[in-house]
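Check this.
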Amino acid sequence: MKKYLIALLVIILIIIGAGVIYWKLIKPTSTAPDQIACTQDGKVCPDGSVVGRQGPNCEFEECPFTPDAIDETAGWKTYTNDKYGFEFKYPESYLLSDDCDGKCLSLGIRSKPLPPRTYGTFPVLIISSSKYAYPYNGDIIKFVTEQLYSPSVVSGEGIKNLKIEAVNLGRISGAKVTASREDGMGIRSESQMIYGIDPKNESSYFVFGFWQYKADNDELNNFTKILSSVKFN
């Protein structure tokens, strides 16, 4: 009987020892904290890229630093229109002309004086105010889509690559329109326009933009930056 007890004790010790060895040497262990599932929202960086959340605290990744993140309009002049309540920046070397002596809103911005008898052949960024936004009741996207760029207008003027999107103009919302077209002589031009309903009078709307014609890349880039700086206070 004593021999059986000893044998049973030995077997129990062997089982316990094997369990200890398995637990210490074979069974995988992990000291990493439990990972929380992060939401899929993203943060838009100054250079236009998007970063997501990561890590145990689901914090946003750092935005990459690029030269594009620097304010390229630093040192530009600022035009402020108190009557209509908006402002924008433009290069110090550019010319700003008031085509109706302050009695209406009709401004032209160009990079150089126009040579004699060449009006309309050099790029000019036009800023103006027009009426007839009614009856769209402040819905600038609907107004632009159904009135200014209706299917009949797009077809009749040969407009291609039309894109209409909402933009933030500070105190008001706007519509940004990019498009291209080709005239009867096969000359292609590019357009970028920003439209905004007059916050003081919804029967009027503002136009900021240009149809590019004989513009070099620097002029086009500057016009685009001018448009991106438009803000209603």
